[in-house]
Design a protein that fits this description.
By secondary structure, the protein is mainly α. It folds into two domains: 1-103; 104-265, Alpha Horseshoe (Serine Threonine Protein Phosphatase 5, Tetratricopeptide repeat), CATH 1.25.40. Helix 2 (30-50) packs across helix 3 (61-77), helix 6 (121-137) runs parallel beside helix 8 (164-181) and helix 12 packs antiparallel against helix 13 (243-252). Helix content is 69%, strand content 0%. The chain is globular, with a radius of gyration of 19 Å. It is built from 13 helices and no strands.
């Protein structure tokens, strides 16, 4: 497994667990940042076990955040509120770059936009999906649409790239969610099926698809298109352990499945 795939695995694990653990935290509560630090350390530990340390970058956002977390631990140990808040303030922009709560969706979008300002080619291609998702989460549908369309426009330039399948999936996924917001369910359904047309990726093949758009369409009574989508997802999600069949059975029974972690990445 390449380093890039390992880092992407760590990235998705971090986003999933941090979202589940920290989404209810108050914005400036030090305990929320402590929880985020726990997840960051878990990610760093996992990365170190999977890949020899000599091949892991010596300084990236994960390692820098880990160092900031150590400073937060030291500040908390002093019981000095001023030092603690200073350490929190230093950690916040790092969490924003990683897309981790308790940094806010607008902070996360602004951080990634700053980090990718002027980017082109492969670097832009690797970041457009996250830009689109962060813009959507921040409530900026116009930016989310622009980033998604740009992603789909660039995808044919990288048909053999590991990120190609993610581009097809998430470009259509975000556009579909925007269509739901606008009340255009027919268009949203088309985007849903287009997303399922992805050839897959290391992340999609392992963790499966994000089911948020499917859930939103189910809530609007669009069970038929969602069942088609779930069937198509079998083409790339071979490791679902029967999950897609279970969800489909629940939908056929007239209920909305508990998609759990598949709503978070």
């Amino acid at each position: 497994m390449s380093l890039r795939c390992i880092l992407v695995y760590s990235w998705f694990m971090l986003l999933l667990v941090a979202e589940l653990q920290s989404q209810q935290a108050r914005k400036d509560d030090p305990h929320a940042f402590i929880e985020a630090c726990r997840i960051i350390q878990m990610t760093l530990d996992t990365r170190a076990r999977i890949q020899p340390s000599r091949k892991v970058p010596g300084k990236d956002d994960f390692t820098t955040a880990g160092q900031a977390c150590n400073q937060l631990d030291k500040a908390i140990s002093t019981s000095d509120p001023a030092k603690t808040q200073s350490a929190v303030a230093a950690l916040r922009p790092l969490l924003a770059r990683l897309g981790v709560p308790p940094s806010s969706p607008p902070e996360q979008l602004a951080a990634l936009e700053e980090a990718t300002r002027g980017a082109s080619g492969e670097k832009l291609f690797y970041n457009l999906a996250d830009l689109a998702k962060r813009a959507l989460n921040a409530g900026d549908a116009e930016k989310a649409s622009a980033y998604s369309n740009r992603l789909l426009e660039m995808a044919p330039q990288y048909p053999k790239d590991w990120n190609y399948g993610n581009a097809i999936y998430y470009g259509n996924f975000v556009l579909g969610r925007i269509a739901v917001q606008k009340g255009n369910l027919a268009q949203a359904g088309k985007y849903l099926l287009a997303a399922a047309g992805t050839p897959g990726s290391p992340q999609l093949d392992s963790f499966g698809p994000n089911m948020t758009l499917a859930k939103e369409l189910l809530e609007k009574g669009q069970s038929g298109i969602v069942l088609q989508y779930m069937d198509l997802c079998k083409n790339f999600w071979k490791m679902d352990r029967g999950q897609l069949d279970q969800w489909s059975a629940t939908v056929r029974g007239g209920s909305i499945p508990d998609f759990s972690g598949n709503l978070d990445y």
